[in-house]
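Practice record 12: protein with flavin-adenine dinucleotide.
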Amino acid sequence: MTSGESPESLSAPEPVSTNVFIAGGGMVGMTLGIALADAGLEVVVADAESPEAAVAPAFDGRASAIAYASYRLLERIGVWQYLESETQPIEEIRVSDGASRLFLHFDQAELGEGPLGYMAENRHIRAALFARAEGLDGLTFLAPEKVVEVARDGARARARLAGGGTVRSALVAAADGRMSRMRQAAGIRTTAWRYDQAGIVATIAHELPHCSIAHERFLPPGPFAILPLTGNRSSLVWTTDVDLAPTIMALTEAGFAAEVAKRVGGFLGQTEIVGPRFSYPLGLHVSERYTADRLALIGDAAHGIHPIAGQGLNLGFRDVAALVEVLADAHRLGQDLGQSTVLDRYARWRRTDNLVLAAVTDGLNRLFSNDFPPLRLARDIGLGMVNKLPPARRFFMRHARGTVGKLPKLLRGEAV
Ligand SMILES: Cc1cc2nc3c(=O)[nH]c(=O)nc-3n(C[C@H](O)[C@H](O)[C@H](O)COP(=O)(O)OP(=O)(O)OC[C@H]3O[C@@H](n4cnc5c(N)ncnc54)[C@H](O)[C@@H]3O)c2cc1C
């Protein structure tokens, strides 16, 4: 990797040329950069944040559920070895409607195919990506370096950077997140709405072990998730009414700890809040197109979903695996990486999968985030039936593991 600290070549008047320029080096953009470089392509990644800031505990308090198929991708591209010691396997998932009534129980032992997934704090995922990028030929990482604009005409795209440099490439991958400037500048519209909910995220340390079990409780304002981390710690996602979130965020430490303890219940023994709390407004957006001339949208730049199923980042990883396969194939054949036939293959592969999950998570959130008695009865009957049917349980577990559908090679753990 070429370090972002000494981008002499880029501040020079001569533009740098590369195969793919990635605007945004968050978890999805960095993964794409690493996977492309690992496949033998030349890549430049630019991110507005410095790596030091991006791994600081105060930057992002979230932890992510990494589906089993996403684990295979990270393993295959050499990231997992830097992350493994910070990951917690998820062996079981317990879903309840309300605080106590158990309705669904998924146990990986029933499948016998390995964990359902792994939990890892986002700061550790970012640190592992930076560590892997460090030794990688073909990858230039520029940070902090903001992308000011991208011109996409003629035979190459040209990205102009705030530091004065220019990067020419056959393709620009926009991985610049939910509010993607690249998407807006390309005139790609989104269908989007906000939920009247915020996700409050905090980490707790607890007296008793979590036994590798993830808990999802459907409470009237939204799901309350208790997700196992390494040691006797868990990550909480407390979905609440968006108007109430500022009040919860303003609670004293003792007040917040008491509210959390009430919702967690006593099964983990004494609990203590460790680290800061965070509040994220929740919404959904889907882009009407994933590609334009010499441009491909990826991760949250292309789509954003409710975190009810912990799948947003996993969808981004699936985009990465598909785009890398498409581009590696085109590269081998000597095709122009930015041509529409290449990009169409990526868009066709990913759009339906992403749309289906956006619809499913939206439906689940609407079905469960209320206390309307007839709906409650209907969903409890539905959950009870799924829980009683082993084939249905296995179907949902395979979906949670991300091992169904037409998987790109990297998600099968194979080289591209
Ligand atoms: C409460 C909550 C819990 C979640 N839990 C899970 C979970 O358990 N599992 C899961 O799979 N997903 C989860 N998600 C979703 C997941 O966090 C996101 O889908 C994921 O972070 C998206 O990553 P990204 O890299 O696409 O975008 P981002 O993380 O937004 O990264 C975008 C990057 O682009 C950079 N950037 C932006 N503009 C520019 C510019 N002009 N120039 C240079 N750089 C720029 C930014 O600095 C940033 O680093 C959760 C989301 C929420 C809100």
